[in-house]
Each structure stands twice: as C-alpha cells, then as structure tokens.
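During the no-cost extension, the postdoctoral fellow (Dr. R.K.) reprocessed legacy sequence entries with the updated structure-token encoder. One reprocessed record is reproduced below for audit purposes.
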Amino acid sequence: MRGFTLVEALVTTVIIGIVLTLSVAEFSQVARHYSKTTGDLQAEVEARNAMASVTKELRQAMSNPNVVATPPPVLQPTPGPSPTSMVQFTEAENITGADYTTMKFDTITIAPKGTPPPGHTYPNLVLTRDNGVTATDSVIGQDIKFFSVTGVYKSVYDVQITTAPPMRPDMPVKDFTLNTRVFISYYKTNS
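Re-encoded structure tokens follow.
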C-alpha cells in the first residue's frame, strides 16, 4: 500500500499555505489599487463637470441694458490680481428676439456653499439664480476643496477648481485641479 508520508503531507501543506498567502496579498493589492484609481477618477470627473458648468454659465454673462449705468456683465470679481471664491454676473433669462433691451435678466452667483454633505469633507459648488423675485440654488459640483475666479480683463476670467472626493480612511485623498480661462463675448448697448 502506497500512501503519503508525514513529511510529504507537511511539505504540501506549507506550499499550499504559501500559495494562499500570496494570493490573498495579491488580491488585497488589486483591491487597494482599484479603490485608489476609482477615487482619482471620481475627483477628475467632479472637477471636469464643475468646470464645464461654471464655464458654460459664465460665457452666457451679458450686460443688463435696463440699468441706468450699464454695468459690465460680470459684477464680481473685478479685474485685478486677487482671486475670489465666488463669481457673480448677469444673464438674460430667455433670448427670444433681436431686441434684448426688453428681456429679463437674472443675477447668477457661483460659490462653494454651506457645510459639506454627510460623508463628505468639502462643500458643494452652488449656482444661485436670482430673478429679483425668487432665488433658486443648483448644485453644479461636489467636494470642492478650492474654487477661485480671477478677473484678468473686463471680459477674461481665470477659473480654478480643486476637488477632493471622500476616500477610504486608509487611502490618501488625491486632489484634482483644473484651470481654465473664460472669454466672455457679450452684447454692448448702443447708448
């Protein structure tokens, strides 16, 4: 009768133990890498979505010709070296015809607002649309660690957004920063 000796059984058990240990370690590394990559991608997506919303709205800035001393379309920040953590501008509600002097204008404010939502470290980026009667808020970005707008010229603005989405406690937070320059081409009144 041929069987296994005790030494053969022990060697087999040790080899299986080593293989299982290496397999678990490899699986753990893959899971950590997946988590980190997912977090990095989430930060990038949040920053890109927020930047797309900010630039889309800011490019729609338009002077309100119904005001006696027609202000520039962007009310804050004014051109200068100091960035601000918000931007405020006027925007036409609906452009339906060639006579834009009869249109209604909203005041748009974009800024980080409030306390962070549950489970998040940083606040949301909020667009507030005020038509003079009611003001409505829309979240256009989450986990905004840093938001700044710098007026370069009267119609040129630099925008910077940094996001840092929540990560697992054992994973470092990876920030993602985007910068862009927005050019505003707007109607000027004939007055």
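The chain has one domain: 37-183. The chain has a mean pLDDT of 84. The remaining legacy entries will be reprocessed before the final report is submitted.
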